[in-house]
Every structure is written in C-alpha cells, then in structure tokens.
Design a protein that fits this description.
Elements: H1 21-43, H2 56-127, H3 138-141, E1 153-156, E2 162-165, E3 168-171, E4 176-183, E5 189-195, E6 200-203, E7 210-216, E8 222-225, E9 231-234, E10 248-253, E11 258-263, E12 269-271, E13 274-281, E14 287-292, H4 304-309, E15 313-319, E16 328-330, E17 335-343, E18 349-355, E19 363-369, E20 375-382, E21 387-393, E22 395-405
Parallel strand pairs: 9-10
Antiparallel strand pairs: 1-4, 2-3, 3-6, 4-5, 7-8, 7-13, 10-11, 11-12, 13-14, 15-22, 16-21, 17-20, 17-22, 18-19, 18-21
Length: 412
C-alpha cells in the first residue's frame, strides 16, 4: 500500500488507470525533494546542508575568500618587503653617511696630525745647526760636552738657582753639577753627575765674620767650608800645605781629581764634594750676600775670537822685584814675564829670560844693544809653575812684571 503525500503545489495530475495515481504523486514529491536537496548542495549559504557538510557555493565562496586573503597577505608581504627594502636602503645610506663621516673625521684627524708632525719636523730642520755649527744653541752645545775631560763644576742651572734668606742658602731643583771622585783605571776622570730633584737648603751655623764656600755632594747634601782663604788647587797632593795644629785646609788635587781636607793638624782625608758658590756671613750666623759660581761654558766656533786670544797678554799684571842676574822666579799662573830697561851709560848691554822647566828643552828670549843709550824690552811666555831665570848686565830696570795671560782665570 502506498502512502499518498499531500500535493502542496495543488497540481492536479490526471492519470489512468486510477490505481496508478498514488504512485505517480509519490514519485513527483520525491523528485521535488531531491531537486531541492541538490539545489541546497549547490547553493545553500551559509549553514551546512546536513549539519556537517556545506554546499559547493559555500566552499567556492570560502575558496574565493581564502584566495582574496592570500592575495591580501601577498600584497601585505610585498608592501612589507618594499618597506623593508626602503628601510634597508635608508639604513644603508645612513650607514654609508656615518662611515663616510667617520672616514672624513679620521682623514681630517690624520691630516691634522700629519700637519702637526710636519710642522715639528720643519721646526727641527729650522733649529738644526749649520754645517759649521755656527748657530748651535746653548742646549745643543751641551750634547758636545765631554764629561771625561771636565770635573768639579756646575753643568746647568735654572734662573736664580742660588738664593739666600736669614741664615739659609737654597739651591733650586734642576741644578746639575759634577762631583770629582778620583780617576778610572784608564786615567780618565771619574765624576758623579748629580741633578737636584728638589730644592735643597743649607743652614749656616758659623758665627764669625768671613766668607764660606757652599759645597754639594753626590747625595744632594749641602755643607760649607770655613774660610774661603783656606781652599786651594794643586797639581798633586805633594804640593799641599803641611798640616799643623790650628790649621784648616780644603785642597784639590788635579792628579787625583779629588778634594782633601785637614783639620787641626790631622792627616788629609778625601772629601767628594763640588763647590757651588760662596756666602759672606756675620757673627750671628746671618748671610749678608752670596756669589754663585757660573755653570760651565761650552766653546763653539762662535767663540773663535775669544779662543784665539787665550794665552795672549792681558791687562792684569803684578810688579816683581828684580834680583841679581841669574835669579829665578816661579810663574803664579799662565802668563808672560816682561822686563824693560834703558842704558846706564855703559855698553854693550843685554837681557835674557830662560825657562828651564822643560828639562832638556829650554825656551829663552834675548835682547841685546851695543849702543850706550836706548831701551831694551824682553818678554817670555810661561805656564803656571814654570821656573824662569833672568840674566842681565849694564842696564837700569824700568819695570820687571808678570802679566797674566788671557784665559788664565786671573786676568781682568
């Protein structure tokens, strides 16, 4: 038996025979159902068709949306890439600009340093001495100082390096001096070169009117020596004064390159010091004045006029008493013996000065006149300590003198 569904579309279908009518109606409804179901599977939106699956249009729209989303994502990625490329470009430009700026700064710094060095080199070239060293500066002259040939002196000193106040004498930092300390095995001078690292003060305790000598040792310690008159320079210790009671002496031996002292008759003892200057003191220990010794002077070609005059007679002399013919005299320094005479009315007359200090090699000068009138003059150069004999006859002496040589240290 077939169940007849209501024809909702109100369509009247006429068929014959009658027993087939229900079957046909049922087939039409079923066809309609499946037609609608097919339509839903094709177009239904947005709900699912059977509670699980969706229509073709749904999936088509979803695919379309996903395609649009993918397109948008691709576009966003492209836009981002474009922005990233712009950022990279901007960053690269910024980095290049920074690098360029750094390179420029570095090049500028190198240029400045090079220019500064070039200026220094130019200054050095301008300060370089000429081939003949005629423009050598005092500082440059110090490099030519042969300290194996000088001793017992001040090498360098700052301005106002020695001052005094009350009973104290101050030696300024930077003062450089040589302390004589004997000789080396090869005979060269052995000196201690000292540069004061700070100011050094000497306090006078002597209570008498006189002049003391300020001394410095290798330990940068200052001391003094009694009366300057009791100091002396000698060729060797054999020439030292003989010690005696009440006798004080500070003696320098050129042969030993050393100072020696004797106090109240005791034997001489070595004292490694360097004299820096003198100070005049009073009975209350006060210092009235000071006389700093001058730093050593280095000779250059610019001093040739001065050097060429050394050994020539100066304008400083002492008058001597002429003894009998043949008497001898010892030179107190480097200089000249000179004698002047005129006729005493008897002729011939002659003067002869003979230096016999050279052993078998003697030097002499003779003046001779056969007239009974006129003048005779005779001069002989000598070194300190030389022994000179004077021979003469038939003359009246006008003067007999020792003239100090230029450069002897005793000339004016």
């Amino acid at each position: 038996m077939v169940k007849i569904k209501q024809n909702t579309n109100k369509n009247i279908i006429k068929t014959a025979p009658n027993y087939q009518c229900g079957t046909v109606i049922a087939g039409i409804d079923s066809l309609t159902y499946y037609c609608n179901l097919s339509k839903e599977w094709a177009c239904k939106m947005p709900a699912s068709v059977d509670g699980t699956e969706y229509s073709a249009k749904y999936y088509m729209e979803k695919a379309k949306q996903e395609a649009l989303d993918s397109k948008m994502e691709i576009q966003n990625i492209c836009d981002q890439n474009i922005r990233d490329v712009g950022d990279i470009k901007s960053s690269a430009i910024s980095d290049l600009q920074s690098a360029g700026s750094e390179i420029l700064d570095s090049a500028s710094e190198i240029y400045d340093q090079t220019a500064e060095k070039a200026s220094e080199v130019l200054d050095l070239i301008l300060e370089m001495p000429d081939k003949d060293l005629s423009n050598l500066t005092p500082t440059g002259e110090k490099h030519f100082l042969n300290k194996e040939q000088i001793t017992n002196c001040i090498l360098e000193a700052p301005s106002n390096w020695m001052t005094y106040s009350g009973s104290q004498v101050t030696i300024k930092a930077g003062t450089k001096y040589l302390v004589p300390n004997g000789r080396n095995a090869d005979g060269t001078l052995n000196n201690a070169e000292v540069t004061l690292q700070s100011d050094v003060v000497f306090t006078n305790t002597g209570q008498y009117d006189g002049t003391i000598c300020i001394l410095a040792d290798a330990a940068q310690t200052l001391s003094s020596w009694g009366q300057v008159q009791t100091m002396g320079y000698y060729r060797n210790s054999s020439e030292f004064p003989i010690p005696a009671t009440g006798f004080y002496w500070l003696a320098f031996s050129e042969e030993d390159n050393s100072w020696y002292t004797t106090v109240n008759g005791a034997a001489y003892t070595q004292s490694n010091v360097c004299p820096l200057g003198t100070a005049k003191i009073t009975s209350d220990s006060s210092i009235l004045s000071i006389n700093p010794f001058k730093p050593v002077h280095i000779l250059t070609i610019g001093n040739r006029e001065e050097i060429s005059g050394w050994g020539m007679p100066s304008y400083t002399y002492i008058d001597l008493t002429l003894g009998a013919s043949g008497a001898t005299y010892q030179a107190p320094a480097n200089g000249w013996y000179t004698i002047c005479s005129n006729s005493n009315g008897t002729y011939p007359k002659n003067i002869e000065l003979i230096n016999s200090s050279g052993g078998d090699v003697n030097t002499s000068v003779t003046a001779y006149n056969t007239n009974n009138s006129g003048w005779l003059r005779c001069s002989l150069p000598v070194k300190k300590g030389d022994i000179v004999a004077c021979y003469y006859n038939n003359m009246s002496v006008q003067h007999f003198r020792f003239v100090y040589a230029q450069g002897s240290g005793s000339e004016v």
